[in-house]
Structure formats: structure tokens, C-alpha cells
From TrEMBL:
Matching Gene3D superfamilies: Aldolase class I
Name of the protein: Uncharacterized conserved protein, DUF849 family
UniProt keyword list: Metal-binding, Transferase, Zinc
GO molecular-function term, one example from the UniProt record: 3-keto-5-aminohexanoate cleavage activity
Coiled-coil zones: none
Top-level taxon: Bacteria
Organism of derivation: Ancylobacter rudongensis
Cofactor(s) listed: Zn(2+)
Length: 302
């Protein structure tokens, strides 16, 4: 029987801004509709952020998350994964407000502080909202803070107290050492689900050698007791995601990580990327994991 591959779709994120693509979902209705379509196309996990419907700016407002989650739950049994990363300009309390209220099965957990450079995008577009350029420029000076104390707060408040399990966002090999540390401490419990994040400016770059390095480091530090997925930002999304599948892992796509469907061509929806990756997975002889298979494999509370 072919191996089930977990396909995650990250629907809107907090990296891209509305002027970059007319297809980036903004309102709760748009985010939920695109998420549901992505699930119907084969995504078992939906990684969710919210945006201010009036401006498109990333938002931590729990009411927006509640609306998004309610709309999706009414029409899909996909695993819902709420971001606790938010954006680098939000406080930790803001980042955790929605997860504290909604208590989802899964949340993201970013495994270290870092530069998160979006500022090179600032001159590449014509902006239709006055916040966009400043938001991107600010990443020249703002640090994406995920201190050990922050990580422990999330493990305690969102993990131990509310039963969520995590998509562990690892942007460089050092973050894998932190995962290994918290496994030894017993604050993280197997089976862990690593997201290898390649291609963020400030993290490891999106190259096949770096994916091999992440995998080899995880093997050395964690042994066999982990699952991994690959998220490559930008145009390496599909090639490195495919490589991740071939290496025995899983894959994340979605407009959070890449706005295109092919070189120079915008994706018209999240589902378009999901369909493309689903085709690749099935052509390679694997099959897509269902949400319930994900729940069983990652020991989610369901
Ligand atoms: N934006 C991605 C590079 C989070 O939401 O916690 C990583 C991410 C972080 O999805
Ligand atoms: Zn995210």
C-alpha cells in the first residue's frame, strides 16, 4: 500500500500583502472559502492566519479567527492549525489570543528568534494600501522573537493546558537542536511534526543541499521518532516540496509561502497549488493522507 503524504495548505499568512496578488484571501469569508476548496483538493491540514478585512493587514483578532474556524468547520473536517507566529510585529499575547480561545487540534510553534527579512520586496510592487511598504521595511529592524521563554509559554499554555500539538517551524539547523532539547526535557512529546522552512531571508536558503542537511541533522538529533514536512518559500515551493516527499516526508503549499503557480504566473487560488502538489504526489506513486490519518499519525486530540 502506498505511503500517505500529509499535504498542508497555508492559506494567507502574514508575509504577502494585498497589492502583491488579487487572489490573496483577506476577509474571513475569503480565507474560509479558499481553505475549504484547498481541503477538497487534498489538503489534510489548513494552516491559518487572519487579516483585517478593511486593510488586508495581518491581524491577531480572535473574533476574526473564530469566524474563519466556524465557517471551515461547517463544511470540512480538515485539521485546523492556527498560527502562533502571527507576524513579527505582534506581541506574544496577541499571537496566542486566538489559540487560547479556540483551542484547536494543532498550532504552529516557531523554534527560534531570527531576522525575517521581507524588506527586499518593498520596491518590487506598486502599493495600493499605505501600510504595505512600511510593514515590509520594518523587517529590516524588527526581530521575529521566539525566545526559549516564549517557546515554553506556548508549550505550556497551548500544548499542555489546551491539548494542541504542533507544527514545529524550523528555519535553520539550530532550531532542530532546540526541538531535541525540549524532547529531552519532556516538554515536547513524540511524535513531533517538523516543518523545514527553507528560503526565508535570515534562515536557511532554499536549496536541495540544505534540505538534505536539515534531514540529516534531524536524523542525527532525533533518531526515527519524528515526521517532517517541507515548506520552501517562493519559487522553490514545488521542487523542494517534491524532494521532501521523495525523502520520506510531507509537504506544505499555499499562498502564505508562494503566490505563484509557475514562473511569472500568479496562482489564482490556494486550491490550484494544492491540486498541483496532489498531482505530483500521486504521479510519484504516493497517496494523500486524510485528516483522520493525520489525527492518528500525529496523535491529535481530534
Ligand atoms: N510564514 C512561514 C514562513 C507561523 O505562522 O507560525 C512560517 C509560518 C510561521 O507559518
Ligand atoms: Zn504561518
Amino acid at each position: 500500500m502506498s505511503r500517505p503524504v500529509i499535504l498542508t495548505c497555508a492559506v494567507t499568512g502574514s508575509i504577502h500583502t494585498p497589492s502583491m496578488s488579487p487572489y490573496l484571501p483577506i476577509t474571513p469569508e475569503q480565507i474560509a472559502d479558499q481553505a475549504i476548496e484547498a481541503a477538497e483538493a487534498g489538503a489534510a491540514i489548513l494552516h491559518l492566519h487572519a487579516r483585517d478585512p478593511a486593510t488586508g493587514m495581518p491581524s491577531a483578532d480572535p473574533a476574526l479567527f473564530e469566524e474563519i474556524v466556524a465557517r471551515i468547520r461547517a463544511r470540512s473536517d480538515a485539521v485546523l492549525n492556527l498560527s502562533t507566529g502571527g507576524s513579527s510585529r505582534m506581541t506574544l499575547d496577541h499571537r496566542l489570543a486566538a489559540a487560547r480561545l479556540i483551542e484547536p487540534e494543532m498550532c504552529s510553534l516557531n523554534m527560534g528568534s531570527m531576522n525575517f527579512g521581507l524588506f527586499p520586496l518593498a520596491d518590487r510592487y506598486e502599493w495600493s494600501h499605505d501600510w504595505e511598504r512600511g510593514f515590509l521595511e520594518a523587517t529590516r529592524s524588527v526581530i521575529f522573537r521566539n525566545s526559549f521563554e516564549d517557546i515554553e509559554t506556548i508549550l505550556a499554555d497551548i500544548g499542555a493546558a489546551r491539548g494542541a500539538r504542533f507544527e514545529l517551524e524550523c528555519y535553520d539547523v539550530g532550531h532542530l537542536q532546540t526541538v531535541a532539547f525540549y524532547l529531552r526535557q519532556g516538554l515536547l512529546k513524540p511524535p513531533v511534526f517538523l516543518q523545514f522552512v527553507l528560503g526565508v531571508l535570515g534562515g536557511i536558503d532554499a536549496a536541495p543541499e540544505q534540505l538534505m542537511h536539515m534531514k540529516a541533522t534531524a536524523d542525527r538529533l532525533l533518531g526515527a521518532d519524528y515526521h517532517f514536512s517541507v515548506l520552501a518559500a517562493g519559487r522553490q515551493q514545488m521542487p523542494l516540496g517534491t524532494m521532501g516527499v521523495i525523502l520520506g516526508g510531507n509537504v506544505r503549499v499555499g499562498l502564505e509561502d508562494n503566490l505563484a503557480i509557475a514562473r511569472g504566473e500568479l496562482a489564482t487560488s490556494n486550491a490550484e497549488q494544492v491540486r498541483k502538489m496532489a498531482r505530483i504526489i500521486e504521479e510519484l506513486g504516493y497517496r494523500l493522507a486524510t485528516p483522520d490519518e493525520v489525527r492518528a499519525r500525529l496523535a491529535l486530540k481530534g
